[in-house]
Amino acid sequence: MTLRSLRGRLERTLDAMALPEPLTVERLCASLSTTRQRPLTMLAMPLPSGGPCGLWVATGTADYIVYEATTSPTHRTHIVLHELAHVLLEHSSTKVLTDDATSALMPHLEPATVQRLMARTWFDEDAEREAEVAADILSKRIQRPLRGAGQAPPSEVADVVDRLRRSLERR
Amino acid sequence: MIAFFNVAYSLCALAGYATAVYKVRDLRRDPANPALIALTVARLFPALSFTFAIPAVYLAFDRLTGVDNLASLMVYVLMVANSVTAQVLLLLWSRPAATARAAVRWRLTGFGVVMAATVALFLAASHQGEHAIDFDVTFARQWSTAAFLVLYLTAFAVGLALSARMTWRFSRVVTQRWLRRGLVLNAVGAGLGLAYAAGKMVSIVARWLGSDALDLVNILWAPAIACVGAILIAVSSSLPAWAPDVEAAVVRWRRYRRLEPLWRAVRDAKPAVVLDPRTGRLDRWDPRRLDERLYRRVIEIRDGLLAARPGFSEPAAARARARAAAAGLPPEELAAVAEAARIAPALHLAPRWTAEPDGADPSAQAPEPPVADDADAEAEWLCRVAYALDRSPYVG
User: B175-225, pLDDT tens digit by residue?
Assistant: First the structure.
């Protein structure tokens, strides 16, 4: 499947999902936690180089998203979105990390309780490509914190400006 | 001159129709927006007026109706209608629809009276012969035609004077850059419309005084100015809608190109970070996909840098920073130079010493790595690093 058609298919899938509006990472987490009826926890930590930069770890009772703490904010958001995409698309996978590696990464988890684990490494597997393309789509849809929000016009003219914008700009 | 006006008036009409069609697309999304309805109609009237003024259409209309110069009546009545809709539009911009209603009704009644008077005055005199471009000066000394012209020019000028004044005032309070530019353009266009009305009036007065010295103002210069004004006004009402997208696309395209050297270096060092190694040529040029491609490029660079991190060199970063600072590079340029030097060894880049003494990217905007999740700032920052990596003599 080409990337373009994969993107089209995933856009339709995500459209059909009734994601929170407006979409933010926090609201997406909260909504997934509600529908899955189990807590979803985000953990930022420096991950060993050469390994995955994001993980979704599912135990019997909870979900954990682990993401690389030492990269740029936009990259961190992307990594989180990739893992959340695995959850959204209900990807399943066998454990790929040894119990030792799991306990090294997440010392407070009992390795035996880990039922599912997805790691963001490279995109050679179908599930990884899907999650990555879904993260691209979600990144376009999430509302980021406004940068340098323009100063608000005086209140008596705010209505006039609003009417001007509603007819001259494209909304 | 006939050929000139065939072309010029067609362009004016086309600009108006195109704007009206553009606004109808917005209307489908927001059908109950009174100002948007008024704006669409306000762009349609001048377009219709210019259509009748095209000499070829003018003569064809006269032949069709069998009344010489009846097209002049159409041109002028439609211009009065334009003036009235412009005033209605200003009212609907300034006041909420509910409180604007009485004033709007008053304007429309006024238009009805003026239109009836113009038609009566026009029909009171006969206008023999074909005068597609020199109607005013030919018949200016007939009293009813003179009154017709004065009434028309006054009604037209009132609307444009109000429009120029109000859109200029609006432009002073809005903070959106392209909205402000659109309003200024509207004010300038309306100002040119006023210059047209003044030129017409002066040349008609000259005819009353028995002089044809200003005929060329009436026949050529005033209409040409009106043409430019009409096109400016047409453009002004869609500019705030499309210009920001065009501007953003240009910025994105330039960033995409500026990231190329860094992305190539990352790809060569860590080929696995590329999601789609065989991006099709056609896809590359699809402007609608530009933001997606830029975002992907940023993420791939970040993935690659993360994977290449063990090869980063803090001493190289410190060295480059010290060298650049000693060479007098401004402090805000140092961050990108240091970052480029830090990552260069990991990307197996040989030191590049270029003759160019300046490490600053002239088109750059972000001097520091972004501290919040801001995709634009992130792309801009990586552009700076890419530039320093490629060009700075202090890296390596």
Answer: 999 999 999 999 999 999 999 999 999 999 999 999 999 999 999 999 999
- B24, B93, B175: best to mutate for the A interface, most A CBs within 10 A: B93
How many interchain CB pairs under 8 A, A with B?
A: 132
Structure tokens at B31: 């059908």
Whether A147 sits inside 8 A of B376 (CB atoms) is: yes
- A166 close contact with B: CB closer than 8 A: yes
DSSP notation for B188-251: HHHHHHHHHHHHHHHHHHHHHTT--TTHHIIIIIHHHHHHHHHHHHHHHTTHHHHHHHHHHHHH
ipTM: 0.84
How does DSSP assign B249-268, residue by residue? HHHHHHHHHHTHHHHHHHHH
Helices H, strands E: what count in chain A? 6, 4
Angle between helices B239-258 and B290-307 (to 10 degrees): 30
Token code pair at residue B108: 């429309």
Using CB atoms, which residue from A3, A161, A170 is nearest to B275? A3
DSSP B82-139: HHHHHHHHHHHHHS-HHHHHHHHHHHHHHHHHHHHHHHHHHHHS---S--TTTHHHHH
Stated pTM of the model: 0.79
| Spans of chain A below 50 pLDDT | 148-149
Q: Is B243 on the interface with A (CB under 8 A)?
A: no
Query: Cα separation of A11 and A18, whole Å?
Result: 12
Query: What residue has token string 């669409």?
Result: B40
CB nearest to B275's CB, from A71, A132, A140? A132
A1: which 2 tokens?
């499947």
Return the SS3 of A116.
strand
In chain B, residues 34-63 whose CB comes closer than 8 Å to chain A: 35-36, 39
Q: Would you state the structure tokens that stand for residue B268, as one six-digit string?
A: 């060569």
- Specify the amino acid at residue B40: T
Strands A40-45 and A63-68: parallel
For residue A68, the tally of other CB atoms under 10 A from its CB is 23
Which residue of A1, A67, A74 to mutate against B (max B Cβ within 10 Å)? A74
- Mutating which of B40, B90, B166, B173 best tests the A interface, going by the most A Cβ atoms within 10 A? B173
* B378 CB within 8 Å of a chain A CB: yes
Residues constituting chain B: 396
Strand partners, A44: A67
Average pLDDT, chain B: 90
